[in-house]
Amino acid sequence: MSATDPGGKGLKLAVAGKGGVGKTTLVALLAREAAARGWRVLAVDADPDANLAATLGIQAPIVPLAEQEVLIAQRAGREGLVKLNPTVDDIPERYWVEHQGVRLLVLGGIGKGGGGCACPANAFLRALLRHLVLRRDEMVLVDMEAGIEHLGRGTAQGVDALLVVVDPDARSLDTAVRTLRLAGELGLERAFAVANKVRDEDDEAFIREGLPPGLSLLGSLPFREDLWLPGRGGLPPAPPQIKTLLSELFRLTQP
Questions:
Q1: What whole-number distance in Å separates Cα of residue 139 and Cα of residue 145?
Q2: Which of 81, 182, 201, 230 has CA atoms 20 to 30 A from the CA of 18?
Q3: pTM value > 0.85
Q4: Residue 195: helix, strand or coil by DSSP?
């Protein structure tokens, strides 16, 4: 199977990074490029600060599944009587929104370990994320928040690769260090860095030198105000590096 062939087992990517580095924009760009190649694409917004719909140019408001109280009560029960493995197989088709070949599912926030993770909403969202990553045969892109521990060990092992988005800021590199450590604890074997907002060779050198061992730089994307400033009504044409990045991801993750 080639990098332009939509057949095969698909590709499952989780994308994390410090707030503001452009991870949501990267997810949207990759999703749009994959759809243009004829892949079945499902983009999942699992960030509590959900912005993927607006980044894709979807104007209609979308209620995150985390706020669908009646649905959650039906599937996962209520406080004090929680079903830890609720039925979720029918949820994606019922609740995704399709736009320009990309299907979007907005989960909302998933609580972390020790943070009330046995509540019905968390049981429901975790089960849904497992289903999306482990059972769906398509291109799945999950826009995470900075921490990835809410993937869970079993779910993380179904992800083909973790992309850690960084920019020329020491704080984003600190987040990359913590994220890589979590990935190792969860058994996620492939992790790559993607550099965003790179203005020159000095920016790229700063990022390369600051990455932790075991997190190689997969590619760099240039700083462009029309790409990296949110809220401008959808995406402009992607930089050519996006095509290369997607092809390289496929080459590195497919058997």
A1: 20
A2: 201
A3: yes
A4: strand
